[in-house]
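Budget justification aside, the reviewers requested a transparent look at the raw inputs and outputs of the sequence design task funded under Objective 1. We therefore reproduce one unedited record. The lines immediately below are the structure tokens for a 77-residue chain.
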């Protein structure tokens, strides 16, 4: 299980760090919500409501806490 630390570049960006390496960045969107984008070649799984979609490197979240929890969960898998 990877230990994730969060680097905050106020007010709009959070970066997930593992062993001093940036793994994922979470950015606040002007329209509301947050996007989490992997810095490496990881992909977010397809949402259950879009089973024919392709996995993507970026995923939208309604809240910062939800996005951080999803990143930490993906890294612990």
């Amino acid at each position: 299980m990877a230990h994730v630390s969060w680097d905050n570049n106020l007010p709009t960006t959070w970066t997930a760090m593992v062993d001093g390496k940036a793994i994922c960045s979470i950015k606040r969107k002007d329209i509301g919500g947050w996007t989490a984008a992997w810095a490496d070649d990881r992909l977010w799984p397809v949402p259950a409501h879009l089973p024919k979609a392709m996995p993507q490197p970026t995923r939208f979240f309604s809240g910062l806490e939800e996005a951080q929890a999803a990143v930490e969960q993906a890294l612990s898998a």
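The beta strands are 5-9, 13-18, 21-28, 34-38, 58-61. The mean pLDDT is 92. Computational costs for records of this kind are itemized in the attached budget.
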